Amino acid sequence: MGSETLVLIPVLVLFSMSLFLFILMGVDKRRAKAEKRRVRERTLFLLALLGGALGGVVGMRVFRHKTKHASFVVGMPALLVLNLALAFLMIYFGARG
Asked: Is 0.85 topped by the overall pTM?
């Protein structure tokens, strides 16, 4: 596997998981307003942990969703830092071959 592929994998994972979590945050906000069945907070955090934290943070801001929950206000940015640090390490060590 070439170093370009090793660089591309973390970028694609972060992008796709972030897009998915962003959309899910919007869906959950819509469900909350309609008083329908919600997405579990555990699910939102799991997706953030798996690389979607950027989408979670942006979704919180765009949809004004979960902004009063301390666990989200602190947890999503913390997971974003973790996601970016892991992606950086994967890219750094992948590029070194």
From this structure: yes
